[in-house]
Design goal:
Low-confidence stretches: 2-13, 104-121
Oligomer: single chain
CATH class of the largest domain: Mainly Alpha
CATH architecture of the largest domain: Orthogonal Bundle
Distance between the termini: 43 Å
Strand content: under 5%
Mean pLDDT: 81
Radius of gyration: 20 Å
Number of strands: 0
Largest sheet: none
């Protein structure tokens, strides 16, 4: 992601899919600043997707770098039959799946440890910190449970429930039928709920 110089686009530059299409067309001709603009537009979402798929921030950063390098090399093959973001997310999912086949299990997305922080005496602040720690713990539990899901289910759950992608976009990203998206999402949600159930009972 840091391999290409990043420049802000002019305020008159097209946005959304139209803007992506214009930048892709320029990048294909060798305009590196156009590709840098594509990286700037999409790197945060790609990184978030990969963090949720892998459960590891450092690995996600490496895979995001690999994703954009692959996209740059394959840019001339992008036929724009889908949105650039969909094509890019497919590359990211492929890299995450390949990494999953060769990696050992990793811990969840670790939040910064609470140890060593100064105590906050006022009750309102204590309640705020307690609520935040509960949210961090829940985030860790969800991230850990995601890593226990079959990769096929984890992909659709992350894309749908965490990235906000619609069924059609998920189908295009993963190159699977709509019916398969629905089936995997249903099974993935059920399995995720089952994995989280012990933790839910323990906090009730």
């Amino acid at each position: 992601m840091g391999s290409h110089p990043s420049q802000s686009q002019p305020s008159s530059a097209p946005t959304g899919a139209a803007g992506d299409a214009a930048l892709v067309a320029a990048a294909v001709t060798g305009d590196r600043q156009a590709f840098a603009a594509l990286v700037e537009r999409h790197q945060a979402r790609v990184l978030a997707l990969l963090e949720r798929l892998t459960g590891c921030r450092e690995q996600a950063r490496d895979l995001a770098q690999e994703t954009f390098v692959s996209a740059y090399r394959k840019l001339a093959t992008f036929e724009q039959r889908s949105a650039f973001s969909t094509w890019l997310h497919r590359i990211a999912c492929n890299h995450a799946a390949a990494a999953g086949r060769r990696r050992r299990p990793v811990a969840s997305l670790d939040a910064p440890p609470a140890a060593g922080r100064p105590a906050l005496a006022p009750a309102a602040k204590v309640a705020h910190v307690s609520a935040r720690l509960e949210q961090e713990e829940l985030a860790r539990q969800v991230a850990a449970a995601l890593q226990r899901l079959d990769c096929r289910y984890r992909e659709v759950v992350v894309l749908s429930d965490m990235q906000g992608a619609g069924y059609e976009e998920i189908a295009a990203t993963l190159d699977i039928p709509l019916g398969t998206v629905r089936s995997r999402l249903h099974r993935g949600r059920l399995e995720l709920r089952r994995l989280l159930a012990p933790a839910d009972r323990g906090t009730s």
